[in-house]
Amino acid sequence: MSAGFALSLEHVRHSYGDKVAVADVSLAVRAGEIVALLGPSGCGKSTLLRLAAGLERPDAGKVAVGGRIVAGEGAFVPPERRGLSLVFQDYALFPHLDIAANVAFGLKGRPRGEIGAIVADLLGRIGLADRARAYPHMLSGGEQQRVALARALAPNPAVLLMDEPFSNLDQRLREGMRTETVRLLRERGAAAVLVTHDPDDALAAADRMALMRAGRLVQVGTPEEVFRAPADRFAARLFGEVAEVPAVIAGGRAWSALGAFPTPRLADGPGIVCVRRDAVTLADGPEAIGARVLATRFLGERRQLRLQVDGLETPIEVAIDRRLNAEPGGRVSITVDRADAFVFPA
Ligand SMILES: Nc1ncnc2c1ncn2[C@@H]1O[C@H](COP(=O)(O)OP(=O)(O)OP(=O)(O)O)[C@@H](O)[C@H]1O
């Protein structure tokens, strides 16, 4: 499976003492592909990245970079000889080196002229051409982050591993850096694994998302695939709030206060129906359900309603077309779009 991929991990495991951090993960990243690795805190994202980088040794399994085995089968290639670069949350620029020297760090041994040209080109691209002689402490967080990215890209790695690279940036800088990072990666055809806790990073930057839970990947797919068929409640919630409603799964259907939903693959038992907020419309019809409006809020594009649905204890929040209105205290009929409702075992 490693041939033809920029990076591949095959049945990789890693424990710290008796704590299993990565249980059994296989993931292959194509040349030039950006994969976002998402999951709750402690699920093993950083450990997986460290295994790919060579900062940890796998207890079992194989890691290959560009088809060459770098860990497993008796091999272990140290990080600096794997042909990949790392970008971490804390940038880790060298404080005693100026910006140009930081960017040049991975280019040791090349002709001076070539180093100068690469550094000048990258500093220009990140908009810091005039700061080449500044030291890291003289730059803002966002500028330091751009330097860290330039430093990682300078040796032209086939694979860039990024661990929460944007998390120290405010929202506006974050979006700018994300766009810039993707542009630089695409330009160079570099593959990347981006560890993030922010689904927006994944939606904006990634070709595929890999969702991790308790040391395992539970779903790998394009953002649209994950959106259309989330593997679990966490995956369903990645793209925005969902209403979660208890259900009973029986005979291939989940029966809930919001109606019955087909569940051909689930065993009978307690379930949860997750409904995207905009899957609810105000409409009468044979399947319509009655609800009382508890509160409304105009959100610009949508109008948010807090509804007490008949037969349901906990109120739900939905987002309807802003041109429709509903008065608090009034009654409405709602229908749920089946394509935006997902059932999981409770
Ligand atoms: N050096 C270590 N020694 C012992 N346990 C560790 C070590 N590093 C991580 N762990 C544990 O391994 C598990 C996975 O950690 P990891 O840092 O890979 O998760 P993560 O998904 O990156 O989390 P976060 O999003 O919080 O950074 C956690 O339970 C963590 O406490």
TrEMBL record:
SUPFAM superfamilies from the UniProt entry: MOP-like, P-loop containing nucleoside triphosphate hydrolases
Q: State its Enzyme Commission number(s).
A: 3.6.3.30
**Record carries keyword Membrane:** yes
TM annotation in the entry: none
Q: Where is the ABC transporter domain?
A: 7-239
Q: Per its UniProt record, what CDD domains does this chain match?
A: ABC_Carb_Solutes_like
Name the source's superkingdom: Bacteria
Q: Which Pfam families match?
A: ABC_tran
**Gene Ontology MF terms in the entry:** ABC-type ferric iron transporter activity; ATP binding; ATP hydrolysis activity
List GO terms (cellular component aspect). membrane
Keywords attached to this entry? ATP-binding, Cell inner membrane, Cell membrane, Hydrolase, Ion transport, Iron, Iron transport, Membrane, Nucleotide-binding, Translocase, Transport
Gene Ontology annotations of biological process type: quaternary ammonium group transport
Which PANTHER family does the protein's record reference? PUTRESCINE TRANSPORT ATP-BINDING PROTEIN POTG, SPERMIDINE/PUTRESCINE IMPORT ATP-BINDING PROTEIN POTA
What does the similarity note say? Belongs to the ABC transporter superfamily.
Name it. Answer: Fe(3+) ions import ATP-binding protein FbpC 2
